[in-house]
Amino acid sequence: MEEVRDINSNLTDVDDILRDMKSSGGFTAKKMAVGVDILEKMCSDGECLRFLSFPACVMATGLRGVLTELIREKMFDVVVTTTGSLDHDLARIWEKYYHGSFDLDDKKLHRKQINRLGNILIPNESYGIVLEDRLQPMFGEIFSEQSEISGFELVGKLGECLKGEKKREESLTYWAYKNNIPVFIPGFFDGAVGSQLWMFWQTHKDLKINLFLDEQKLSDLVFSSEKTGALMLGGGISKHHTIWWNQFKDGLDYSVYVTTAAEFDGSLSGARMREAISWGKLKEDASFVTIDSDATLALPFMVSALKKRLREVR
After folding, report:
1. Spatial separation of the C-alpha atoms in residues 233 and 205, rounded to whole Å
2. Which residues pair with 282 in a beta bridge?
3. pTM
4. What are the DSSP calls for 237-267, one per residue?
5. Quick one: which of 116, 178, 204, 231 is 20 to 30 A from 246 by CA?
């Protein structure tokens, strides 16, 4: 058996701290460190197709910068997320979000036309208003030459439309376009971008968003890969669509799942990755871990350590 060792509180390098956390044997600390080990193996495996999935809420926070960097540096090959991720990513190019508190008076916020997302404050002018002003002309440009498009191609076109924006390099959507990394949104109309698309359709009834083409692209990607792996933040449709497609290839070879959800209610968000083995969505011999943590807390440290290790290998 491996001995439990104390953490050295004098360490200042993130990777050194995480390695000490692994040696400590202590609860979630060790899981975080194991997660970095798995990500290192996954990102170093040249045969592995790498999925990144996350919900919209994290894009309203500073974690957007970490996620964008993963795509800018091509550390992942496929993104699966929700429409709200587009909402927040695009809106923050043009307007600001603000610090708030979980304990604010929501009735007063509503009267001031300020939306609360946890402890993030989003004024109406920073969200719905600016998205309507900016997206309608973009849709006009995108659909001037075609009336049918897949969901992932539409996201790419939106990224292309950002080429002239000063803050484009802060945007995950822009870097996904720039690096030709497909972004899949299974629930395309569940957000402001989807609603604006529906509004555009009112005067362009020949418009078609063909999500069958998204599924075909996912099929092509999964079945043309030798191995697959995923970093999944939070659950819901983003997590499920990632593991759903990988079941058809006998399951993921690597998986790191970060969640705050409980397992006892049977929800997908709370389901530990070991449950996915029974469905064939994770291989029996896969390298995997479920980390019980808020992604905004865990991921910056994990990615910092991961990037250092990958630089040292190269």
Report:
1. 36
2. 252
3. 0.97
4. HHHHHHHHHHGGGT-EEEEEEEE---STT--
5. 178
